[in-house]
Amino acid sequence: MKLNKSLKLSLSVLVAFPLSFFVGNEMLANNLIETIEYGSSNKELLACGGGGGGGGGATPAAKAAAKKKKAKAKLSFKKRALSKAAAAGEDTSKLQAEIAELEALIAK
Fold first, then answer.
1. Distances from the Cα of 72 to the Cαs of 32, 37, 83, in angstroms?
2. Residue 39: pLDDT above 60?
3. Of 16, 40, 39, which Cα lies nearest the Cα of 28?
4. Domains of the chain, residue spans
5. In the chain, pLDDT over 70 holds for what percent of residues?
6. Collapsing DSSP states into helix, strand and coil, what is residue 53?
7. Terminus of the chain with fewer CB atoms < 10 Å: N or C?
């Protein structure tokens, strides 16, 4: 009796294990056909240039906000560099000019 059960178990493992490589979890989810159809339609969309997007990028207001944010980050870096240069007794005229430019850019 034990031999019969072990034979059935080993036979089912020999069939189910290789089958799981081909089907994976799709058999359990019962949506193998939908997944295949979605994959093929998604490839067609990408081949045709579709797949989302639109609008052509950021708006001018968003670009200006991003530019202002970058300028603020540069300004804080330059101010730190200015304080380090001043503490070391180095020439700070170039850094002061760059800081003035960044402050003017932010003020716009």
1. 52, 49, 17
2. yes
3. 16
4. 8-47, 60-107
5. 61
6. coil
7. N
Task: Please determine, for residue 26, whether its predicted confidence score (pLDDT) is greater than 80.
Answer: no
Tokens 């031999």 sit on residue: 3
Q: Exposed (0-12), middle (13-18) or buried (19+): which is 103, by Cβ within 10 Å?
A: middle
Please state, rounded to an integer, the average pLDDT across all residues of the chain.
Answer: 76
Question: Which residues are CB-neighbours of 81 under 8 A, at least 6 positions away?
Answer: 95
CB neighbour burial string for 67-85, b if at least 16 within 10 angstroms, e if fewer: eeeebeebbeebeeebeee
Please report which residue ranges of the chain form alpha helices under DSSP H: 2-23, 26-29, 32-47, 60-88, 93-107
CA–CA separation, 15 and 9 (whole Å) = 10
More confident residue, 23 or 66: 66
Mean pLDDT to the nearest integer, 7-27? 70
Q: Which tops the pLDDT comparison, 20 or 65?
A: 65
